[in-house]
Amino acid sequence: MSTKTTSGKIKIAYTVAGKGDTTLLLLPGWCANRTKFEGLIPGLSQHYRVISVDWRGHGESAKNDSDFGVNEQVEDALSVINETGSAAVIPVSVAHAGWAAIGLREKLGSRIPKLVFMEWMVFDAPPPFLDSLKAMQDKNTLKETLDFVFGKWINNVDNPKLVHFVRDEMGAYPYDMWSRGAREIGRAYGTYKNPLNAVSNLKDKPSVMHLYGQPDDPGYLKAQEDFSKANPWFSVQKLNTKSHFPMFESSDEIVKKIIEFCK
Hints:
Oligomer: single chain
Largest sheet: 8 strands, mixed
Number of strands: 8
Radius of gyration: 17 Å
Number of helices: 10
Low-confidence stretches: none
Strand order of the largest sheet: 1-2-4-3-5-6-7-8
Helix content: 40-55%
Strand content: 15-25%
Distance between the termini: 25 Å
Mean pLDDT: 96
């Protein structure tokens, strides 16, 4: 069932499926629509109530004429949680929507018992990535930067739905949204250093699982496994996928791992 609620004066679109005392709140990243979760909802909704959200200015939510950032995204998610009467909520966030998920934990405390991060840069952002964020905030270099990033995302990927999502859905977002997202992502890394550090500094840390397929770098996995040994609240699951969008390639495996983690 698709519906809308109001966050401030902005209509926020979301979809509800399934039933249960615990709600999985699916949060897409910047310049991405909730359509990316279509392959996960049928399996997840057999076990939980599942709500997928379009951020303001994204998908079927209303456009936002004024500037906004992660704080407003947290308010958008809160409006959906309040509208649907969700008690226990587990955010399942993709990429940098994880900053909003952490913000929800700060706001709601134990009502957010767990967090699922998907395809996120959980350690310090490397200089080339930060350079790309700066380039996205310049009208003169945005197209060149997106062409490069999109090329990396869909290189050697033979999945029409994934290619359509990247090129046609994400590619349709204008400069102001890409620039805004890049600004907010860069600001978050500058403020918190990295996502795991941000969670570590929470007063009461929730259980956190990171699901990812790329990069296919053994060192990145080992660093997360080492962090998990020292911080039992964190766990990592490496997926056998070719792209940064595993929900298009391995939806059944993702559903299984999320259900196991959320029990």
